[in-house]
Amino acid sequence: MDLCSRGEVKRLLDKYGLAPKKAFGQNFLVNPGIPQMIAENSYSFAALKGRNVPHGVLEIGPGVGALTCRLAELYDKVVAVEIDRGLIPLLGESLAEYDNIEIVEGDVMEVDVPSFIGEKFGDILAAGGTVSVCANLPYYITSPVIMRLLEAYPLSEKVPFEAITVMIQLEVADRFASEAGDSDYGAVTASIALRADVRKLFNVSAGNFHPAPKVSSAVIGIVPHGGLTTVYPEVKDSDHTAEEIGSEALKLISLAFGQRRKTFVNAASSAYSKEALTTALDKAGLRADVRGEKLSPRDFCRLADLLL
Ligand code: SAM
Known about the structure:
Blueprint: H1 6-15, E1 28-29, H2 33-46, E2 55-60, H3 66-74, E3 77-82, H4 87-94, E4 101-105, H5 113-126, E5 130-136, H6 142-151, E6 164-169, H7 170-176, H8 187-193, E7 196-204, E8 209-210, E9 217-224, H9 228-231, H10 242-258, H11 264-268, H12 274-283, H13 297-307
Parallel strand pairs: 2-3, 2-5, 3-4, 5-6
Antiparallel strand pairs: 1-8, 6-9, 7-9
This protein binds S-adenosylmethionine (SAM).
């Protein structure tokens, strides 16, 4: 069964009385080259740990299974969470030939990530293997899903995924891959950077989907680094813990980008005195009139450490 041919996708949906649901962000891939590339890019991050340890992958939103089957050919175990109850029997048919795929009906936004990963991939982790996340994400919840996966773990630790390889809207991909001072840089970019590096992998045009979305897409790899100590090594000499500095930094990021046209001091003055903010900027070697969009993730951590 070619799960990526336009005709087969339509035939399967018809057979089960389904049509693509906009509310669930259903745009199915209909070019077989794309899921193959996404799966290979995802697996290449996991394979850095060696091919002789087991590798598992969590997929979010398998749809009719176009990416799921490519993942199953590379990974030892695939667990795919699908919110659309109507797709579950269809997936039972389309993926029948694979014995290393488990489909779970559910909303990823309601999954308790650490316990779910422990339950589904405990055997793989116990054997020294890896767990990754891979998805053609529904665009209506791109940032919430990514933040849910990252924020499920303490800031002081490395998020335990080899990589989160996801297809998302092109302009969101550009935003996530931007750096302080870029016009695309924003609160989510800085918050992700406290936990991971973002690599833009390749672009995908709208014609590769059924139905075609109104926007272009891109695949990114979100690769967790060692946590807050990677961004802000000075934490080891601080009186504050990585968790304290991290959560204060997230508060500063939210204030700074909540009113991005204002200087950082004005934007953050609802929560701190202007004097404290100006003193912290001075100690950090930053200009008193700096705007939040010029502050790097490390700057936010340094300021958080000084303001705590
Ligand atoms: N993986 C398929 C592909 O590449 O062709 C489908 C991708 S489609 C863009 C997004 C998929 O995510 C759909 O199957 C949709 O039903 C599912 N989905 C949407 N919201 C979800 C949620 N909150 N939890 C789990 N799956 C969700």
